[in-house]
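DM between two lab members

TW: hey, do you still have the Methylated-DNA--protein-cysteine methyltransferase entry open?
JB: yeah, one sec
JB: this one, 189 aa:
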Amino acid sequence: QVNSKEGEFQCKEKHAVLLSPVGKLEISGCETGLHEIKLPKMSVLPSGAESAAWEVCEGAEEMTEPLKQCTAWLHAYFCQPARMASLPLPAFHHPLLQRDSFTGQVLWTLLRDVKFGEAVSYKRLAEMAGNSRAARAVGGAMRSNPIPIIIPCHRVICSSGRSGHYGGGNLMKEWLLSHEKLQKEKLAY
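TW: and the structure you got?
JB:
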């Protein structure tokens, strides 16, 4: 039911655009679940008033339940991280997230086991997903992640401590990691 022969979704896809501290995020999904979060490419790091921005700028009236949950979760992530634990994750409706592939296994492991404010190496994530020699495949799984931020591929870094590449660009990856570190420190007090 998820796929047609061409690999397209057989569902009524809805879209919304969210203005976030890192720019416009495009989210899409259907009644069954979230399909994708598209990240903007950042050329400069947001600061001050920009980093406080949050609103739904397109698609609010047609949002499915999974898109509403995604919006609430992302709002908490950027603006009220202490609330994240009490919010449900939206259901996902993307073929890559079927658990029987290594990519799916890696993404689910990352979502479940690498918490807000933590980071993990590609090698360690490969071990956690059950194949210690698959660090390069983990990199491929991160590149194909359809739901960045919620499935936190930005938390996967090189063993050397370098941040590594990111679909939203390295500036966004660094911003997300420092945002989480700062918020985690605030929550600790």
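TW: got it. The CA atoms of residues 147 and 189 lie 31 Å apart. The longest helix spans residues 170-188.
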